[in-house]
Amino acid sequence: MIFRTKTSRAARPALRQVRTTAALRPLRHRLDPARVEEIPFRTSDGFRLGLTRVDTGDSGRPAVLLLHGHTASADMFLQPETRNLVDVLLDEGYEPWLLDWRGSCRLPYNETGRRYTYDDVALYDIPEAVAHIRGRIGDDRPLFVVAHCIGSLSLSLSMTAGLVPGLAGVVSQGVFLTPKLAGRTSLRMSVAGELLKKRIDHIPVDFRKAGLRSKYTPLFALASRKASCPDPTCQILHNSAWGTGASLFVHENLSETTHDRLAELLGPAPLWILPHLRRIELARSVVRWHDTDHRYRALPPNALDAAGSIDTPVLLLSGSENGLWLDSQKLCHQVLAHRQPQLDVSYTEIPGYGHLDTFLGRGAALDVFGHILDFLGERR
């Protein structure tokens, strides 16, 4: 059913509304607000980010920094409708820290404002957040990182550059040093990026905000082909992954409430990031984008070639049904075992899970988080 609304002929509404300030959208959670500390945080290159600490009242707990994927946010670790990762970490004696890096949908940068590459995330966002946490907790307490998707990919670049030394352990979910996409996903990413870059600068996920008569309607229509779910947001994420033909989760693993919140949990995907992502995928390694700018010389040209400098244990985690990065983590484990056998790297596959549902799934606390806790517990 289509609902019509009256509009004034004198003032034609804009096709889209975007935020023009770096104000963070509030987090949704069920924690005591007095325990949630929002820390003003700005990187040295001038980006305002979000850094959140959950106060446990125990200054001796090991700290765990949580890194979301691109277009997601710290909300993915705090879902009030399920037993989430922050709940589990608190119960097991850890102090959670959550970083909304510049790709967060709580920030406006994917839709408007200054552009960036994953080099910026690896050089500024992650190392400076780690340094800030270290300044708060000291050098004696263990600091772990649990990273998802592009947050994990960017972290791998920071780690091989030696910018985040002394971590007690890293859990990488989805992709780490050896990104691998399906052939059709890579092809669509390349072709669509070239065809659409002059018309749009990002792909939205909320059809209600885009509008039926917007320039994004053909993308939503394409995503709806052979879709089993009638929700347009689910179609463009589960059935198409922003038009790439990939899938971000196993549909049955999401609760009804989480499914209804998809447009809040995942935001627009910027098209101007595609050149760096294409270069990374074609290389099957995390490669630096900026080759001539001296500011980025601290980052290795190819993170896989510099993997020998990793100084912390790593758990590579992936769902068996990952419809976006396929078996990238299994490949990474095999490559590192062959090229860098001295590294402490392990691989765990979660049966029946996709990509996002390893954190957002209604059963993730039972099926996934135990693997994370076992890894952290052995090294705390």
Report a brief summary of the structure.
With 380 residues, the chain is of the alpha/beta class. It contains 14 helices and 10 strands. Strand 9, helix 11 and strand 10 (345-350) form a beta-alpha-beta unit.
Number of extended strands: 10
Main sheet: strands, sense, barrel? 8 strands, mixed
Q: Write the H/E string, N to C.
A: EEEHEHEHEHEHHHHHEHEHEHHH
> Structural class of the secondary elements?
alpha/beta
Helix content: 25-40%
CATH architecture of the largest domain: 3-Layer(aba) Sandwich
Query: Can you identify the CATH superfamily of the largest domain?
Result: Alpha/Beta hydrolase fold, catalytic domain
CATH third-level topology of the largest domain: Rossmann fold
What is the tally of helical segments? 14
Overall mean pLDDT stands at 91
**CA-CA gap between termini:** 55 Å
Identify the CATH class of the largest domain.
Alpha Beta
Number of domains: 2
Strand content: 5-15%
Rg (C-alpha, Å)? 20 Å
User: Which parts are unreliable, with pLDDT below 50 for 5 consecutive residues or more?
Assistant: 1-18
Main sheet: which strands, in order across?
A: 1-2-4-3-5-6-9-10
Taken from the alpha-carbon principal axes, the silhouette is: globular
